[in-house]
What does this fold into?
Amino acid sequence: MISLQIISCILILSVFSEFSKADDTCLGEQRFTSFTKIGNNYYYIDRTNVVNWYKAVDTCRRMGANLATIKYDDQMTALSNYLLSRGYDDRFWVAGNDLAENGNFYWNSNGRKMTYAKWSPGEPNNFGGNEHCIHLQIRNGEYSMNDFGCTYKYAYFICQAPEPILKLKMISLQITLCILLLSAFSGLSKADDTCLGEQRFESFTKIGNNYYYIEQTNVVNWHKAVDTCRRMGADLATIRYNDQIISLSNYLLSKGYRNFYWIAGNDLAEQGNFYWISNGRRMTYAKWTPGEPNNFGGNEHCVHLQEPTGGYTMNDNDCSRLLYFICQAPEP
Ligand SMILES: [Ca+2]
Ligand SMILES: [Ca+2]
Ligand SMILES: [Ca+2]
It folds into this structure.
């Protein structure tokens, strides 16, 4: 038993030392090598085309990143100084928005309330009652925040890599972490025999090959559903195959559940082209209810499951409708 632990320890150390050679950061971050370290975070600053906020969200998600989440004044200052030093005088979308609850801003990245903000003078003003997404802009010689209409192709954007799980620099630190990891792994294998970081999904139910959390208590708008799943480290459900919707449908029916449930699909970025907000990718599979998606009233941009005819299928609906929702844990 002890010798097994020592072997795993050596394996873990060698894996981490590869990562620290590559980037001096951490597990899983090698894909962010094109990101720039500014202050303590890694960013990807896109100045290719101005896009709407939803497109910016999807693009960052496709990189395994998120729109930037600015939590402290130091972070804001570092970012502002960097942008100014490059001579950029542009607008950049970040993750903040009050789509779920007007006047209460949340970060789309982690679903948490914005406890820090550096607003431009007079902002946020929700001009015309239609400003729910935050971008950075220069005011008084530095970057600060403004709320603006989410659907306007108005700004470039800044993606931020997930924060490192572990930072490794010295062997002694590695050994300490190794011991911690070993104890974590042994705890996990007892709990679920799955993977690092999944212990928080214990309340999720395995249905088919995926783990889901089915909200049956509170109805919320689609944006609130997105944030709630993100706070769990999960996302709204992403249904990619027929087997997956069949398993889910059978499970819901077996429980006697006959409700509407928000999932990750939406055409907020481009009317008529549906994407998953979970991974920013195009919906290549869909099982629509006959006659759907119909974009009824020109205002249906979010996808939910419904059960009109003995099995759950998909419908586009008004994102502000209050429905139950289904979160899905990341794939191991
Ligand atoms: Ca504004
Ligand atoms: Ca639509
Ligand atoms: Ca519809």
In short: Residues 6-29, 165-173, 183-198 have pLDDT under 50 and may be disordered.
